[in-house]
Structure formats: C-alpha cells, structure tokens
Amino acid sequence: MMNIKHLFQLIFLAVIVLAANSCKEPVEEVNVYSGRHYRSDEDLFRKFTEKTGIRVNLIKADSDQLINRMAMEGDRSPADLFITADVGRIAQALDQNLLQQAVTPFILENVPKNLRDPDGYWTGLTKRARVIVYHLDRVDPEQLSTYEDLVLPAWNGKILVRSSQSHYNQTLLASIVAANGYDQALQWAEGVVDNMAQPPRGNDRDQVKAVAAGAGDLAIVNTYYMGLLLRSSNEEEQQVAEQMGIFFPNQNDRGAHVNVSAIALASSSKNKENAMQLIEFLLEKESQELLASANYEYPVNPNAEWPELLKSWGTFKEDDINLSRLGDYIPESMKIFNEAGWN
Ligand code: FE2
Known about the structure:
Blueprint: H1 4-23, E1 29-34, H2 39-52, E2 55-60, H3 63-73, E3 81-84, H4 87-95, E4 99-100, H5 105-110, E5 123-135, E6 159-160, H6 167-180, H7 182-195, H8 204-212, E7 218-222, H9 223-230, H10 235-242, E8 244-247, E9 258-266, H11 272-283, H12 285-295, E10 298-299, H13 308-313, H14 323-340
Parallel strand pairs: 1-2, 1-3, 6-7
Antiparallel strand pairs: 3-9, 4-9, 5-7, 5-8, 5-9, 5-10
Helix pairs in contact: 2-12, 4-14, 6-7, 6-14, 7-14, 9-10
The chain binds fe (ii) ion.
Residues 85, 222 line the site of fe (ii) ion (FE2).
C-alpha cells in the first residue's frame, strides 16, 4: 500500500518533470547537405554540438543529387549548408541560385584568397592537390615535369587515370583550359587518351593499385588517397602505396592543380547564425588539423599545422588561380573530354 510519504514523493517528481518540459528551449540546429562522406566530418560535427549545443542534422548524398534536391525543394529546403568535395559542383550550385553570400572577418583572415569565392558565396574547407604518382622502380622523377608533358611519347601506354565522369578530372581539365586555352587543352586530353595504359575505370585508389600491378607506370590522383593507402588497415594497400613516389607537377610554372572541398550557406537557410558558427568552427586551427590528420587533406587555414605524412611529401607551389574561375570552364572541359574520347 502506498503511504502518504510515497504519494508526496510521486507528486514532487511529476512537478519536476512538468517544469523541466515547460522550460525546454526550441532545439538549436543546423542542417547540412554534404557530398563529403568522411568520418572526420562527423567527428567534428559532434564536437561542434558539444561546444555549442547546436545539433547538426547531416544529409549525405552525391553532390549532384544534393544540388538537384535543393533546387527542387526551393525556399522550403531545410538545407542550411552545402558541402562538396569539388569546386566545380559549388559553381553549379551558385549558378542555380542555391547559395547566399556568407563572409565574416574570420573567414577573410583564415582562408587564402584563391581558396574562397571573391563574392563570398563559398569558402574552401580542405585542400587537395591532383598530382602524379609514379612507380619508384620504373620511373625516375627527373623524367617528370608538367601535366602538359604527360602527352610525350615516353608515357605511351603508361598512364592510369579515371574517367571524365570524375569531378576531380573535370576541374583539373578546367585548370588546363584556363592556363592554355581550349585548343591546347583539347590536344592535351587527346594526348593523354593516346598514352593511357587502359580505358579509364575505377577510382583514384584503383589507378594506384593498377600501377602497382604493372598495368602502367604513373597515375593522376589526389594526394589524400596516397595518405589513405599508406595508413590503410589493409596491409596490401600499404604495400601498394609504398612502391610509389608523389610528384607535384608544374613547379617551374603555374604550380600543381589544387581543388577544395567547399562549404557554402544555402539560400534557403533558416538557421543562418548556427550555420555561420559551424563554418567558422570548421575553419578553426584545431578543426583544420583534425581534418588534415584524419583524412590527409591539406588544411586551408595557413595557421594549421600539417601532419607528419604531409610534411614528408614536402611543400609545393600550387596553381593559385582563384578556384571560383574554374567553374566557368567546366562546360568546356566536358566538351573536350567528349571530343577527345576520354570516357
Ligand atoms: Fe575523393
């Protein structure tokens, strides 16, 4: 039987529960549409929530799918932030009026000019170089120089590179159109197709594996894939990467092509303040160092220290064309790939 003391205890508890519920603030949140699928990002979102109390709702999909989704959802889109692993995609989102300007003094101070939109519609989040990876036993790095020289007869049947569907290749070619013009870029693409060891298939890591397997001598890949292979839990992958050298092309002229993962404020954003807080959090030195050490990408914030592995590859000159300009050349690069038969 319940005595009077227990009854009072129950009433007391009920009052506390009611009071707690009535004081509940509306949940602070930010909705992120991301084309990046890395655990490092989710770790950072969790840290952000711990620090600020702002919940991060993450929707992951292919960047093109996310752009279509935002376009279809229009003003009703819940998207606050759009993240993509290629600057060509951010240009596409901008073209479709899916982004709004988001500049803060913090962004201006912590992100170099070439890695953010001059009109403030997006900022780089991490940086990656698209480099030449070569087999240490079969290639003397003295033979290597520029992207342009990959068409030389010496590389006939030796080059591994993925398909033109790859956003990374589209943006690399855009940088070559920007530097050399349409006609020379077309000749270049045709020359690379002629020198391919096999028709393009697989991802960047598969190109490196094909070189290790003897299909060819060099591959065009993003730097962080070498990090992911070297630090893979799979010993075979480590062995593949250990047979390779990394060469940064065009060091005596415009520099190696870099691309960014970029972050932008969606025009539909209803949690703008929270979104801006998250952008700044991701650009802080500590977050940048975490992204670099977990994923072997280069930080965009120059104050962030590089992990040892990136240091061991050395510093390099990067093509510092403002990346926002490369988006303009993507349609031309698609046309060139088509004409050159780079499938
Ligand atoms: Fe990637």
